[in-house]
Design goal:
- With 167 residues, this protein is mainly alpha-helical.
- It has a domain at 18-121: Orthogonal Bundle (Helicase, Ruva Protein, domain 3), CATH 1.10.8.50.
- The chain contains six helices and two strands, in the order ααααααββ.
- The chain has a two-stranded antiparallel ribbon.
- α1 (29-36) crosses α5 (87-105) and α3 (58-68) crosses α5 (87-105).
- The longest helix is centred in the middle third of the chain and has 19 residues, at 87-105.
- The structure holds zinc ion (ZN).
- Zinc ion is lined by residues 140, 142, 145, 147, 162, 164-165.
């Protein structure tokens, strides 16, 4: 484990290969498209990769994929497409900004506040407003969808998703 003062984050060498923060000013659809392109890993695992986007936890990634209607099983390469910015990348970027902004608004003043060591714990914020996380066996929370939420395990982490509206 390493300790460092939070104001020296940018200079800290172990953090220098981190991807952009998931906030509107930092993560752009082009960044995301370029980072995902060509990767065979599932999109779920790619979004958890700190080199692609810094600080997205497991719960948030499930929520972002659900809102975006993107299956967690789809490969990163497939989501990105061959060139430019795909519709899926556009949605993922938009929903990443939205989920993070909501998380900050509902309790944390900075990203640091809700970034747990594991990504699953340490979340005091909006736990009751998850649309998909922790809802295995329940009806999808989207009013227009009749799907039932499933849980699968990817890279040793739980993924919750709706086969009805995420494809
Ligand atoms: Zn659904």
């Amino acid at each position: 484990m390493d300790f460092f003062p939070t104001d020296s984050e940018n200079e800290y060498k172990l953090l220098s290969h981190l991807g952009p923060e998931p906030t509107p000013g930092q993560l752009s659809p082009m960044d995301l498209a370029n980072s995902l392109r060509g990767r065979r890993t599932p999109i779920k695992s790619a979004l958890l990769d700190q080199r692609i986007v810094a600080g997205l936890g497991n719960i948030y990634v499930s929520e972002i994929l659900h809102r975006s209607g993107v299956s967690p099983r789809r490969t990163a390469a497939n989501v990105a497409g061959r060139s430019g910015i795909s519709k899926r990348v556009e949605k993922l970027t938009y929903n990443t900004h939205e989920v993070i902004t909501e998380a900050i608004d509902s309790g944390g003043s900075t990203l640091q506040d809700f970034r747990g060591v594991d990504g699953d714990d340490a979340l005091g914020y909006f736990p009751h407003s998850f649309g998909v996380y922790g809802r295995e066996g329940e009806k999808c929370t989207k009013s227009e969808c009749d799907g039932v939420i499933r849980r699968i395990v990817q890279s040793n982490r739980s993924t919750f998703y709706c086969p009805g509206c995420q494809n």
